[in-house]
Amino acid sequence: MNSSTFSFKEKTQLLLKYLEVNPYHYKSIIDCTPDIVFVIDIEGRIIKPNRAFEKLSGYSSEELTQMTLQNLMGSKQADKFLHHFQLALKGSLENFDCSIIHSNQNRVALNFTHFPVVVGSEILGVYGVGKDITGIMHSRKGLDEKEFLYQLLTSNSLGMITSTDSDGNFIYFSPAFLRILGYTPDELLGTTSFGLIHIEDFEKARKNLTHLLNKKESGFDTYRVRKKNGGYIWVECICKPLIDSNTNHVKEIISVIRDISERKKAEEDIRNSEARYRNIIEHTPDAIIVVKDSIIVYTNDTSLELLGATTKDELQNKSVFDFLHNEYIASAQRRIHQLKNGQTVDFKDYKIYRLDGNILEVEVKPVITVFQNEPAIHLIIRDISKKIQTQQLLVQSEKLTVAGQLAAGIAHEIRNPLTAIKGFLQLMEAKLTDYKTYFDIITSEMERIEIILSELLTLAKPQDMKFVKGDIVQILENVKTLIDTQALMNNIEIITLYETNIFSIFCDENQLKQVFINFLKNSIEAMPKGGKISVELQSLGFDKLKLLFIDEGRGIPDHILNRIYEPFFTTKETGTGLGLMISKQIIENHNGTLHIRSDKKGTIVEVILPIF
Ligand code: ADP
Ligand code: MG
Questions:
Q1: What is the DSSP letter of 62?
Q2: Are residues 166 and 245 in the same domain?
Q3: Where is the Histidine kinase domain (predicted)?
Q4: 459 pLDDT band (50/70/90 cuts)?
Q5: With a 6 A CB cut-off, is 130 part of the ligand 1 pocket?
Q6: CA of 564 relative to ligand 1 center, distance in Å
Q7: Which ligand is nearest to the CA of 525?
């Protein structure tokens, strides 16, 4: 209102005085009219209600003067009234409909006219005249009742309710809306609901409005809404357009809004913890499978590899029992049962099928977990085939060590009596001159035995790799001596073909011997009917030599050829399957290469080594 020299109270008193002094202004017109006539002061207090007012409202004049417009109309209608009141103060004197609440709680519709009470240059209040239009409104009675109900519901509701016009301008907001967001009505009146919506949700809200203006209801949408303190809350909102029956256009949009920040936060927390869980699981070296009622719902990359799948889809929604070897199903079910009874269950060995049908040995530990808010079982699966192989390797190398030690022991034991025999033989040779040829043979055989014994001794001695300059021909000859007896027993002849006699190499002699013995033994074992093994030595360029072991054995079929270097791969009943694996390693340690070619006529082992 205009700047004034009077306080509100003073203005009211002045108004009263004025009416006393000028009673005809009021009294005569008022008392006989069926319309309500009253004056309200600029704070909305009812002053001087007429009789019609008493009749239409059901309150006495005294009661009415104790009331404000808000009491009498309800806040929404009072707002409307005050809005027009403001307009009237500015000189706009349009009629408008507004309803009051009768003391019997029925609404009475009135058409109001009002104009300011101006004394001098002071605006002191407003004259109001309200025409009873309940009759006219009769056809709209249902609507009014609804409006009343709506009023009653919204202002007392703990929920947030707003109404906006078709541009989004606020018309009404429930107390809860103001309270939760922290605004006062003044701060929101004259603004649009879009002003409160988070920029990222703006587009969604715009689309929703278009949808509503097409007279369709919205579904539940979620938005971030700005609070007065600058923060945002998440709300869920359902909107309904109200259609003006005259224009058939949307005149108002009612939104029922719910604060879902708590729910959003809980969802966020779950998402975060799920993301953390996934992150850990994706990076663990164990295979992890999550199952719900034995159906696979999640797999990490390691488990794909383990089961031989290329994509997660190949495993998703299959039963874990499809992968489990029949023998183990009962045990697995028992363990799941124990787990569900709250017991913890440790790793246990199982056999499972990979997708390619191969069987894999694994150990499995199930743990109770929650997956996507539902109880599930988290399976930790580890491939133990390597572990089993290592165990076997240990056992095997233990055996070999024992055998080696035994051999060394025996060699030692034989050497002593051999020295004695040799001594007596020399004594006898001196006397029995007729048998010289026999003695020569015996002596040479004895020397062979001695060589073999010393070879055995050096081989058995566990040694670190010791690289020295060595003579390849000498090494081959030593190996030949060692293996010849076995060859002869199998009706096999070992032929050597050396291109030259001078090939120095930098090597660990014992290890190379071990390699060559291995090749020759493999050849012998492949030739049960006897035959010929040739060992050929050639130069290759200036700096390498090529060594070939060529046998006439049964050969190696193609499907076996690419597995012969695998540890423990053997086709023999008493084989170790370690020979070629170790040989390849030793040759590579000597900067050499190993190639094996084979067909039905026999096998060629080719070794290339650098010359010293
Ligand atoms: P093992 O001799 O203990 O079986 P190896 O690693 O020495 O182990 O050999 C692996 C396999 O390769 C043998 O079981 C055999 O089937 C095949 N193999 C190796 N050398 C030959 C060969 N000269 N002739 C035929 N088969 C061979
Ligand atoms: Mg072998």
A1: H
A2: yes
A3: 409-612
A4: low
A5: no
A6: 7
A7: 1
Bridge partners of 173, per DSSP, are 162
Confidence of residue 13 (pLDDT cuts 50, 70, 90): confident
Among residues 264, 296, 322, the one where a domain terminates is: 264
Out of 548, 566, 570, 573, mutate this one to test ligand 1's pocket (max ligand atoms within 8 Å of CB): namely 570
pLDDT digits (tens, 9 = 90+) for 224-248: 999 999 899 999 988 888 888 778 8
210 belongs to a structural domain: yes
The residue among 270, 269, 271, 198 whose CA lies nearest residue 237 is 198
Question: What is the C-alpha to C-alpha distance for residues 527 and 192, in angstroms, rounded to an integer?
Answer: 98
Same domain, 79 and 206: no
- Which pLDDT score, from 0 to 100, does residue 77 have? 83
Do 453 and 509 belong to one domain?
no
Give the ligand at the shortest distance from the Cα of 526: 1
441/364 same-domain check = no
Nearest CA, atom 21, ligand 1:
522
- Pair 373, 352 in one domain: yes
Looking at all shown ligands, the one closest to residue 523's CA atom is 1
551 CB less than 6 Å from ligand 1?
yes
Q: Residues 295, 251: one domain?
A: no
Asked whether 570 lines ligand 1 (CB < 6 A), one says yes
> For 373-423, what is the HEC assignment?
CEEEEEEEEEECHHHHHHHHHHHHHHHHHHHHHHHHHHHHHHHHHHHHHHH
Q: What is the pLDDT of residue 157?
A: 62
Distance 593 CA to ligand 1 centre (A): 18
237 and 301 assigned to the same domain: no
pLDDT digits (tens, 9 = 90+) for 476-510: 998 998 888 889 999 999 999 999 878 899 998 88
Domain stop point among 377, 400, 432: 377
The CATH number for 255's domain is 3.30.450.20
Domain CATH number, residue 496:
3.30.565.10
Percent of the chain with pLDDT strictly greater than 90: 30
Given a contact cutoff of 8 angstroms between Cβ atoms, the answer to whether 90 and 79 are in contact is no
The DSSP code for 328 is H
Ligand nearest to the CA of 603: 1
Domain assignment present for 151: no
Residue 226 vs residue 137, higher pLDDT? 226
How many angstroms does the Cα of residue 497 sit away from the middle of ligand 1?
Answer: 24
| Mutate which of 520, 574, 580 for ligand 1 pocket (most atoms within 8 A of beta carbon) | 580
- For residue 275, tell me if it sits in a domain: no
In testing the pocket of ligand 1, which one of 519, 564, 574, 578 has its CB within 8 Å of the most ligand atoms?
564
Per-residue pLDDT, 140:
46
Residue 184, Ramachandran bin (φ over 0: left; ψ between -120 and 50: alpha; else beta): beta
pTM above threshold 0.85: no
Residue 107 within a domain: yes
The pLDDT value given to residue 460: 60
Helix (H, G, I), strand (E, B) or coil at 51: helix
pLDDT at 152 over 80: no
Distance 580 CA to ligand 2 centre (A): 6
107-116: per-residue pLDDT in tens? Answer: 788 888 887 8
Q: Is 579 in the pocket of ligand 1 (CB under 6 A)?
A: yes
Instruction: Spell out the residues 6+ positions from residue 339 whose beta carbon is closer than 8 angstroms to its own.
Output: 345, 366, 367, 368, 377
pLDDT band at 402 (very low <50, low <70, confident <90, very high): low
Q: Do the Cβ atoms of 269 and 261 come closer than 8 Å?
A: no
Q: What pLDDT score does 304 carry?
A: 92
Whether residues 130 and 40 share a domain: the answer is yes
- Per the structure, the complete domain to which residue 338 belongs is given by 285-377
CA of 108 to the centre of ligand 1 (A): 109
